[in-house]
């Protein structure tokens, strides 16, 4: 991560990792309370180029990221702490749904 940040800039740190590992059919999740974190938005852009499905966890002020990912999960408040609590809850719900699906498969 440090090498990527030093050589390509911190705004590309996650995009480079996505470019290295993402494949068509993967799901790439970006979490940005503000919705405008360049490193997260570039990673989502890279994931789309790689053919991955993209999901963004954001807050209501997330004007920059609303049209970029395939799915936006938005915290209903502009206050960062509340948005982060919503993100945590959504993450747990998603993990539970995936586990239930895997058990039934």
Question: What report would you give on this structure?
Answer:
This protein is of the alpha/beta class and 105 residues long. Helices cover 50% and strands 14% of the residues. The chain has helices at residues 2-8, 13-21, 38-49, 80-104, and strands spanning 27-31, 53-58, 71-74. A 3-stranded parallel beta sheet has the order 1-2-3, with helices on both faces. Helix 3 (38-49) links the parallel strand 1 (27-31) and strand 2. Helix 2 packs parallel to helix 3. The longest helix has 25 residues, at 80-104.
The structure class reads alpha/beta
**Average residue-wise pLDDT:** 89
Residue share in helix = 40-55%
- Number of E strands: 3
SSE run:
HHEHEEH
Poorly predicted runs: none
Q: Compute the CA-based radius of gyration.
A: 14 Å
Tell me the distance between the termini.
Answer: 36 Å
**How are strands sequenced across the largest beta sheet?**
1-2-3
Strand percent estimate:
5-15%
Oligomer: single chain
